[in-house]
Specification:
Elements: H1 5-12, H2 16-35, E1 39-42, H3 47-60, E2 69-73, H4 79-92, E3 96-100, H5 101-107, H6 123-134, E4 138-140, H7 149-152, E5 157-160, E6 188-191, H8 199-209, E7 220-227, E8 230-233, E9 246-252, E10 265-266, H9 272-280, H10 286-290, H11 298-306
Parallel strand pairs: 1-2, 1-4, 2-3, 4-6
Antiparallel strand pairs: 5-6, 7-8, 7-9, 9-10
Helix pairs in contact: 2-3, 8-9
Length: 310
């Protein structure tokens, strides 16, 4: 792909489908506000939750989002992301609730197999504790169906039982955009307004709306290690192993999460429009290319979701 073809490709990408996706997302965000008493929007400071936040601004108006923002913090998040999360919540005047996996560890409800174990999967426990604490009846998340196969099986309004579990064979039909939001005591919904978006849609929307993101999403130089086909960032939590060579590369993060399981990709993309072009030629999903904990199997992720994962 050369410099002449890039503008031509960008000019062919119509905004019509972005308008349709935005309209659907706004409709779902308003539906949640109308149908539930105590909803919350899961907000990590990552690109997908920032896209949802922009849609929420359009749905309700700046400073008028009718539900709090909820963050489940592993304690191993990138500081650039958590700082941006706080900045954005403060800028909007939104209520931000943060609950930590470390607090669950102190209570004894989370126990690690060893100190270096990733805390990512244990967020489920802390999330369920937050749901019980605040009696949330709907949690709005930024998962998309194109991320991986287990997420593709899930409805937009995903019913969870009184144990917070997802039952794939007992999902409710969503014909003609009609949602069954009835709940028994103790049950709740996970709602995914951007289910039908793709990674490319997200970046096109970020480019169109000029949405500010944490700097990690754009090219920067970082020390990394090549391990099992991934570029593992060199940090205190992910030090090099014996025999591994540390190299400095131009990288960016396609997705951000727990430091212990999130990897960058090689890239010189410095703007959202650069990333749109890069994403057009991507052959591996963002989670498949960047998440160490997703290198197991579809069945493993599905089990996590059944146990209450996002």
């Amino acid at each position: 792909m050369n410099a002449r073809t890039e503008p031509a490709l960008l000019s062919q990408l119509s905004n019509r489908h972005l308008d349709a996706l935005e309209e659907e997302t706004i409709f779902i965000l308003r539906e949640v506000a109308a149908a539930f008493e105590r909803p919350a929007l899961l907000f990590s400071g990552g690109k997908d939750s920032l896209v949802m936040l922009r849609c929420a601004e359009k749905a309700f108006g700046a400073g008028r989002i009718p539900y709090p923002l909820l963050m489940i913090d592993t304690g191993h998040n990138f500081p650039e992301v958590t700082a941006f999360r706080d900045f954005r919540a403060n800028e909007l005047g939104a209520e931000l609730i943060v609950r930590s996996v470390e607090d669950s560890m102190a209570r004894g409800t989370v126990r690690l197999a060893h100190p270096g174990e990733s805390r990512n999967v244990h967020q489920s426990v802390t999330l369920l504790e937050a749901i019980e604490e605040f009696r949330f009846d709907a949690l709005i998340g930024g998962a998309r169906r194109d991320e991986e196969k287990a997420r593709a099986k899930e409805r937009i309004f995903s019913h969870r039982d009184s144990f917070g579990q997802w039952q794939p064979k007992a999902q409710r039909p969503e014909l003609w955009t009609l949602f069954n939001t009835r709940l028994a005591p103790g049950e709740h919904f996970r709602v995914f307004p951007i289910s039908n978006w793709t990674e490319l849609d997200v970046w096109q929307y970020i480019d169109r709306e000029k949405i500010a993101l944490p700097s990690l999403y754009y090219t920067h130089q970082r020390e990394v290690i090549e391990r099992k086909g991934l570029l593992v960032p060199v940090t205190e939590l992910t030090p090099p192993r014996d025999g591994e060579e540390v190299v400095t590369r131009d990288v960016r993060f396609r997705t951000v999460g727990d430091i212990t399981c999130t990897c960058p990709v090689e890239s010189t993309a410095a703007t959202a429009s650069d990333i749109v072009i890069e994403t057009l030629s991507a052959e591996v999903s963002e989670r498949g290319a960047t998440r160490m904990d997703d290198k197991t199997s579809e069945a493993s992720m599905e089990k996590r979701k059944k146990d209450g994962y996002f």
